[in-house]
Amino acid sequence: MNQFTKRLAIAGVCVCMTASTLTGCGVKEDSVVATVDGDEISYALANFVIRYNQAQYEQFYTAYGAYIGLQPGTNVWEQSMDGKSTLGENLREGAMESLKDMYLLEDHMKEYDITITEEEKKAIEKAADAFLAENEPEVLEAMSANKETVSRMLELSTIYTKMQSAIYDTVDTEVSDEEAAQRGITTAFFSAQDLEDATAADASDSDAEDTATEGSAKNEAKEKAQKVLDEIKKGKDLDEVLENTDDTVTAEYLTYGEDDTTLNEDIKAAADALTKEGEAAENLVESENGYYVVQLTTTLDRDATDTKKEEIVSERQTEAFENAVAEWKEEADITVKQKTLNKIEFVDSISAVYTPEATPADATAGEASEAEAETEIATEKETETETETVTEKETETETETATETEKETETKKEKETEKE
């Protein structure tokens, strides 16, 4: 039986999903699953968005399930990460929240003078045709993927990106050095553990002598750190002093700002007390396993400060966009036909079963960033060789679907009905 295959570039492997397992329960494609201020969201559109995102996430869950606590040999979509809702329910509801947002953005296009150009319309049509041509009929049927549905999704995605950009443009991008200021410090850590390891061969097995060894090692670390501190108080750089006194300790340059929460609090407090470049903290900073020497390198690291400015602007833009959509959603009349939506089910399939063997040996949770993952949906041909997957052709209007799978926002005006 033909299947549709999705390749996740970050994992470098293929998983397959049988088209027959994706179908709903006899719901008509033109059935309405929700309305946003009178604009109808069809079952077909909802199913397409949900299935598209299902394909994206199934590869991730198959390859990296161990890192997020999935149970081997079970249907991924029936598992729960919070004990309240399943991954399938989260995906379905998250996709619907995204569609609501897209419809609201479409409703407010005139306020930002946003339109879909003729060139963009042609590109959307071309991309939709390519997608339909590159997938088998049973796959398209399972996804409710016809010309109208695919084109509509591409149109909404284009509107989303253009509206997001327009709202971003309303944000003040001026950020002062004072607001973004990042100081630069140089630190050196003198570890008692390293000294304990160096004398481990001579240590006794008794607890009393072990404790004495630990105390002695920490005292030795303190003495070494104090000698270095005394030298830099004479006006020398920490790097220079370490080169001449202790080649086992390496200086580390760090930048931090007023709102930094990652830097050790005691180190930050010691650094905050310094006002002159080259000045060293009056005392050593003690930790459980040793001592830090802290020296102020610069009161304003230009590169780090400029980077912080960009982060601040980005935060302002994100906040402005989210606030605008939230306000519109609060004012909108939104109705969801939950029983109809729930007919989009997630039954067991080849790729929906988490198998640890599929996890790349060198995979890490950090490498499994969903936001950066590139996905492809295509058709697996029944041949002796594995074919490469094909995707929607990239066009100038190709945009993010911006689906937030864990979003739980509900509005006062949203109503769930029991109608099919």
What percent strand? 5-15%
- State the strand order across the main sheet: 4-3-9-11
Number of helices: 12
The major beta sheet can be summarized as: 4 strands, mixed
Rg from Cα = 29 Å
| Domain module tally | 2
Helix-strand string: EEEEHHHHHHEHHHEHEEHEHEE
Could you tell me the number of beta strands? Answer: 11
User: Helix share of residues?
Assistant: 40-55%
Overall outline: elongated
Average pLDDT, rounded to a whole number, is 79
Low-confidence spans: 1-21, 348-420
Termini, distance in Å? 31 Å
Q: In terms of structural class, how would the helical and strand content be classed? A: alpha+beta
Task: Summarize the helices and strands and which ones pair or pack.
Blueprint: E1 3-8, E2 13-18, E3 32-36, E4 39-42, H1 43-64, H2 87-107, H3 118-133, H4 137-142, H5 147-168, H6 177-180, E5 182-191, H7 192-198, H8 207-232, H9 238-245, E6 252-257, H10 265-272, E7 285-287, E8 290-298, H11 302-331, E9 334-337, H12 338-341, E10 375-380, E11 415-417
Parallel strand pairs: 9-11
Antiparallel strand pairs: 1-2, 1-10, 3-4, 3-9, 5-6, 5-8, 7-8
